[in-house]
Amino acid sequence: MKRVCLNPAVVAVLVAGSLSGCGMMERLKPTPKPAPIVAPVAEAVVLPATGAGQSAAALDQTTAAEKAAAAAVPAGSERMLGTAVVGLGSPAEQGFWIKSALIAAPAKGRVQLASGASVNVDLLPGTGGALLSLAAFRALGLGLTDLPEVTIYAQ
């Protein structure tokens, strides 16, 4: 009988190659496709029909006295809460207000643009992106689709 003597290094390579082949076979098996995630569809909010659309002026129901109070120079000291990029809030919520995560509790305050234009507002706590009322947008001379950065001050 003939004796075969194998080098230990060759044996190690053969064993490693055969074991890695097992892993390769697993990779060649088709993977099952995950089931599609089906999220519930939220109900749409339907606003009452008002004709061919309304202008910002028609939606803004603030009075002349409210507009004058919003434009008045604030009395007393203020503290800056921070800056935020604001979007247009719900036109159904009348008045001068801002909702922001920078605001911890309802208070009186002011928002100011980089240009220096400012308006007095009610500060309301919010979550997510900051929202500014339609009346405040109009008082600052902003377009309804603008996303301006404002500095928020508390009185």
Molecular structure report:
The protein has helices at residues 8-28, 56-59, 64-71, 134-139; strands spanning 79-88, 97-100, 107-113, 118-125, 130-132, 149-154. The protein is α/β, with parallel strands linked by helices and 155 residues long.
Keywords:
single chain; 155 residues; alpha/beta; 4 helices; 6 strands; elongated
Q: Helix fraction?
A: 25-40%
Structural class: alpha/beta
Major sheet: 6 strands, mixed, barrel
The number of distinct β-strands equals 6
C-alpha geometry? elongated
Offer a concise description of the structure.
With 155 residues, this protein is an alpha/beta fold.
Topology:
Elements: H1 8-28, H2 56-59, H3 64-71, E1 79-88, E2 97-100, E3 107-113, E4 118-125, E5 130-132, H4 134-139, E6 149-154
Parallel strand pairs: 1-5, 2-4
Antiparallel strand pairs: 1-6, 2-5, 3-4, 3-6
